[in-house]
Specification:
Strand order of the largest sheet: 1-2-3-4-5-6-7-8
CATH topology: Porin
Oligomer: single chain
Shape: elongated
Number of domains: 1
Mean pLDDT: 81
Helix content: under 10%
Order of helices and strands: HEEEHEEEEE
Low-confidence stretches: none
Length: 197
C-alpha cells in the first residue's frame, strides 16, 4: 500500500518491447461457443465518463498526504473490438498542487478553484475480454500549477461489467514524473449509429 501513496520514487522509464509467438500446428480446431459480452463492442462509438481519487504528497514521502481528484469524459471509436481510439477532456483538483501554489510568492490565487486543471487528451485502449488497458497522453490547457511540463499521461487498467459500469485503477503522471495512483469508477455510454438505407 506504500507504493500507492508515493508512486514517484525511483526512475521512470519509457520502454518499447516486442516479441514472437510460435503456434504449433494442430488438426483440432478450438471452437469458442461462449463469448464474453464485454469483449464485443456494444457500438462502434461510445462515451466513457469516470471519476477517480488518489493520494499525493508534497516534499518527503513521509510528509502530509493530499487528496487528488480526477474527472474525465472520453469519446472512443471501437476498431475491431480489441482496439479503441479516442479523445477527451480531463478535470483535476490536486490539493498537493494547491499547497505548493500557496507557498509560491509569485503566484496569487483569489480562490481555491483556481487550482483546477483542465486538460485535453488522446487515448488508446487495448481490450482483452472485459479488461481494458488504456494509455493516454494530454496537455493542460488551463493550469496555474506549472512543474516542468504541462503534458500529462496515464496508464492503467479498466474492468467493464455487464451493466456498462467500469472499475478503474491507473497511474497519473506529469509528463515522466508520477503524481499518484488513482482508484475510481465510471460508466460506458454506447452511442447508436445511424443505419444506412
Amino acid at each position: 500500500m506504500h507504493l500507492t501513496k508515493v508512486p514517484n520514487l525511483g526512475v521512470n522509464m519509457v520502454t518499447l518491447n516486442s516479441g514472437l509467438v510460435f503456434k504449433l500446428p494442430c488438426k483440432q480446431k478450438t471452437i469458442i461457443d461462449k463469448v464474453d459480452s464485454s469483449s464485443k463492442a456494444v457500438s462502434k462509438h461510445e462515451l466513457l465518463f469516470w471519476a477517480a481519487f488518489g493520494l499525493n504528497e508534497v516534499g518527503m514521502p513521509e510528509g502530509k498526504k493530499y487528496l487528488a481528484q480526477s474527472y474525465s469524459a472520453t469519446y472512443y471509436f471501437n476498431k475491431k473490438n480489441r482496439n479503441k481510439f479516442g479523445a477527451g477532456i480531463d478535470v483535476y483538483y490536486n490539493a498537493a498542487n494547491l499547497a505548493q501554489l500557496k507557498a509560491d510568492t509569485t503566484v496569487h490565487l483569489s480562490s481555491n478553484l483556481q487550482n483546477i486543471q483542465v486538460g485535453v487528451k488522446l487515448a488508446y485502449a487495448y481490450n482483452i475480454g472485459r479488461l481494458s488497458l488504456p494509455v493516454e497522453l494530454g496537455y493542460h490547457v488551463i493550469s496555474k500549477f506549472v512543474d516542468g511540463s504541462q503534458f500529462f499521461s496515464r496508464i492503467g487498467m479498466r474492468y467493464y461489467f455487464k451493466n456498462n459500469v467500469v472499475a478503474i485503477i491507473s497511474l497519473k503522471t506529469q509528463w515522466a514524473v508520477a503524481n499518484y495512483i488513482e482508484f475510481g469508477a465510471g460508466y460506458r455510454l454506447p452511442l447508436k449509429t445511424k443505419i444506412k438505407t
